[in-house]
Design a protein that fits this description.
Length: 160
Amino acid sequence: MTDVREKGLEVFRELLPDAFPDVEADLQNGEFGGELAELTLDNVFGGLWTREGLDRRSRSLVTLGVLVALRATSELEVHFPIALRNGLTEDEIAEVIYHCSGYAGFPAASTALAIAKEALGKLVRPAVTRHVHKPEVDQRCSASLVGAEVVTGSSLRHRL
């Protein structure tokens, strides 16, 4: 096994610890297109993700922006949790999507937002309810839940 492959496997396992229990065995299964996984390990995870110059958090920002622009839906589903693992917050992920709307277009951003909600919604975290101060609402409905938000730790909020 080459040094690049070893580094690629190491990064892959760190970024996607639950993806494949035995990546090396899966690489050697002889299936159609199986070489693409080897190229990905060597070139993307072993070559790009291990380079100096950008930390993993920054690489996730760049990767998300490119994937949103390409409408790479399958890759986005994988890279949203990777971005969290690399230190981005859900608010920052939402900001990447918003920012991409101006450069990649609203349809691409809208698709990415839907994928982010689904991918990040699969992660388990407690919901929190907090009151959002709105003076005009508070005067009329101070005892109601109007103006409250259910927050799941992100900017992907649900207003009541």
